[in-house]
Amino acid sequence: MSHRLTRNAHNAQRWIVMGVSGCGKSEIGRRLAERLGIEYAEGDDDHPAGNVAKMAAGTPLDDADRLAWLLVLQSKIKAAAEKDKGLVLSCSALKRRYRDLLRAGDPALLFVHLDGDPALIALRMQARPNHFMPLSLLDSQFRDLEPLAPDERGIRIDIRTAPERLVDEVVQQCATTRIDTTGGAIK
């Protein structure tokens, strides 16, 4: 049985699936986009080569490193919003200022924060071969992480659940809660 939703407000919504490296952004983002019948974009694909090389060498990115990357993602969000198209984008969006920059492309952007225990995420990172992000950078990601503030439109999801159930939870939470279209938090 297909879980695909019929066209509704969520199908024209722009989403960011966020969190530290290894939390499952790509997997959950792809599944959510498929469930909603909308486009998925992998934020890591837009990192400049210098950023990827820096991370692969075990050096954390700083705000200046991330700026050009975030502006590319913002333009994708803005283009989808201008066409009233849905989009699910995976992006760490670790700091409030990064999310604010992304929100400049669409004030109604909705964030899904995949949250989990550092030990569980470390195990997941060790199990994924050939990824440019080394385990040694996980601590720096947690140091940079600023959880969603009450005035940000978004939800927090615990990653201990299987991916399909996580997507179910995202869809259920968004269907059963009021989404403030003025840019405030989900209530």
Task: Tell me what you see in this structure.
Helix 1 (25-36) packs across helix 7 and helix 3 (63-82) runs parallel beside helix 4. Mean pLDDT is 83; it is low at 1-7 and 179-187. The chain has a five-stranded parallel beta sheet with strand order 2-3-1-4-5. It has one domain: Rossmann fold, CATH 3.40.50.300. It is of the alpha/beta class and 187 residues long. The longest helix has 20 residues, at 63-82. It contains seven helices and five strands. The radius of gyration is 16 Å and the shape is globular.
Count, helices: 7
Mean pLDDT: 83
**Computed CA radius of gyration, to the nearest angstrom:** 16 Å
- Class from secondary-structure proportions: alpha/beta
CATH superfamily: P-loop containing nucleotide triphosphate hydrolases
Amount of helix? 40-55%
What is the gist of this entry?
With 187 residues, the protein is of the alpha/beta class. It is built from seven helices and five strands; from the N terminus they run E-H-E-H-H-E-H-E-H-H-E-H.
